Amino acid sequence: MANSQIAQVATVDLSAASAALWLAATAFMALLALYIVGIDQGAVSLFGNDTHVHEFFHDARHLLGFPCH
Ligand SMILES: [Zn+2]
Prior knowledge:
Layout: H1 16-39, H2 52-56, H3 58-63
C-alpha cells in the first residue's frame, strides 16, 4: 500500500465516565423492558386499569414463561 492510501480510522471514546453512562442506560432500558413485558399486570401495574400494554405483550409474556393467568 502506498503512503497516500493510509486509511483514516475514527477514534472511539472509551473513557470510564462514558462507559458508566452507557452501562447505566443499558441496564435501565433492560429493566424497563423486563418490567413492561413480564411484570406489569393487575394491581401492581403502572398503567392502572388500562390493560393495553399487558395485552400487547401477552404472547411474549407466555413465550418467555412469565406467570400470567
Ligand atoms: Zn396470559
